[in-house]
Amino acid sequence: MEIRHQQITHNNVIDFLINNRHNFTLFVEILAAVTGLILYKKYKHTAAKYFIYFLVYIVFMVIIGRYSYLVRDDRVFSFLEGTLIERNYWWFTLFWKITAVVFFGWYYSKVLKNESHKKILKISIFTFMITSIVIILFNLNLYFTGSIPSIGVLGALVILQCVVYYFMEILQSDKILTFYKSLNFYISCAILLFWLIKTPLAFFEPYYRKADMDYVNLRGYINLIVISFMYITYSIGLIVSNPEND
Q1: Alpha-carbon distance 97 to 131, whole Å?
Q2: Number of other residues whose CB lies within 10 A of the CB of residue 80
Q3: Helix segments in the chain, DSSP class H
Q4: pTM score, two decimals?
Q5: Closest by CA position to 93, among listed 144, 53, 56
Q6: How far apart are CA 78 and CA 143, in angstroms?
Q7: Residues sharing a CB contact under 8 Å with residue 141, sequence separation 6 or more, in sequence order
């Protein structure tokens, strides 16, 4: 009986987390942004200040992207029902999947020391932007109604490139001795894990429908874990890192 009670309690906790995952993820995103703003003076003379700006941008981007919840049931934005922007796929494709990749590429181009790596990364960013625009133009319907896996894959490759170059420089310098005090180390670990886990989910988008609630709940649980991990890692990194190491 006690084991059964524990199982029921465990299931209730999971259901609660999944049902409120959007609020939890917004909370950790706000937590990271607020942490960055509180510690802004600590990083204002380093490239990390741009990362703090980015965290604030993410909060506003996510909040605005929730407009789609106000379209249904005659809510504030019910006039958007039946239009191309009824759903928010286009918003997060443009302002997260593309903009975030471009930002991280640009950010690492400021952090990296190797000039060859910086030049190659800048070329990759430009190529990613142009390719993403072309992909969207050839998949306009999908752009407004679902995720475009190819953009996610290309973005993941750029992120991987950023992280690999960063770790290569760390391994080839004295910074390896104090890597755990560098904010960029925490950023690199967080975005690498996030993109490696999230990118494959785009290929399972056709299964994301109410008729398959098992997959809906599983994806929601995965999103909750990886997003929470990423922003909590950001928060910890901002607190424990030394700005002079960035």
Answers
A1: 13
A2: 17
A3: 2-19, 21-38, 40-43, 48-65, 89-92, 99-111, 115-138, 140-145, 149-171, 183-201, 213-240
A4: 0.90
A5: 144
A6: 21
A7: none
Q: Write out the residue range of the structural domain in which residue 10 sits.
A: 2-245
Give the pLDDT band (50/70/90) at residue 237: very high
What is the amino acid identity at position 202? A
Look at the block and give the residue holding tokens 């299931």: 11
| pLDDT band at residue 5 under the 50/70/90 scheme | very low
69 close to 87: Cβ distance less than 8 angstroms: no
- Mean pLDDT value across residues 22-47: 95
Q: Which of 184, 182, 190, 187 is nearest to 227 (CA)?
A: 190
The number of folded domains in the chain is 1
Task: Give the list of residues 6+ apart from residue 102 with CB closer than 8 angstroms, or none.
Answer: 125, 128, 129
Residue with token string 């191309």: 84
Name the token pair of 27.
């909370």
The answer to whether 221 and 89 are in contact (CB under 8 A) is no
Phi-psi region of 9 (alpha: psi -120 to 50; beta: other; left: phi over 0): alpha
> Do residues 98 and 155 make contact, with C-beta atoms less than 8 angstroms apart?
yes
Helix (H, G, I), strand (E, B) or coil at 98: helix
Give tens-digit pLDDT for 59-109.
Answer: 999 999 999 888 877 788 888 888 889 999 999 999 999 999 999 999 999
The pair of three-digit structure tokens given for residue 78, joined into one six-digit string:
């019910």
Rounded CA separation 124/112 (Å) = 15
